[in-house]
Sequence to fold (152 residues):
Amino acid sequence: MTRDRRLSWINGLLLPLFNVLTAFLATAIVFILINVNPIEATKILIYGAFGYEEGIGYTLYYTTNFIFTGLAVAVAFHAGLFNIGGEGQAYIGGLGTALVALYIDPTLSAWLIIPLGIFGGLCLELCGLSFQHTYRPIGAVILLSQPLCLIS
Fold:
């Protein structure tokens, strides 16, 4: 096995597994500190997230923003850029999409409404990017992230 294949295997399987086990270990330590049985608490945690259909739906609903924000950061890093303020970017894009969905005629076809909603989110994002280029980008993103999250 070559060095590159070995590193690929470690990065693809062992590192995520190690991260999950470390998270469970840290959580178990917190549970022990507050006098809660860690095994029972983990069973309840896993059942609440994946144990029934509604739980799976809630898990997907609440993790979607994290998944797409992580994807945005990963794409920027892959391009050699530094992306900060992904949460605010996700919220402002969602706000643009929601505004289009609210003000568009509901009798139109979904084949037209969905692309228009995506276009509305993109337009609001581009307005935010043009504001960032007027000022220092990192400062603008950090300062605007929280207010944008609050208004959306």
Residues 3-33 form the longest helix (31 residues). The mean pLDDT is 81. DSSP finds six helices and no strands in the chain. The radius of gyration is 21 Å.
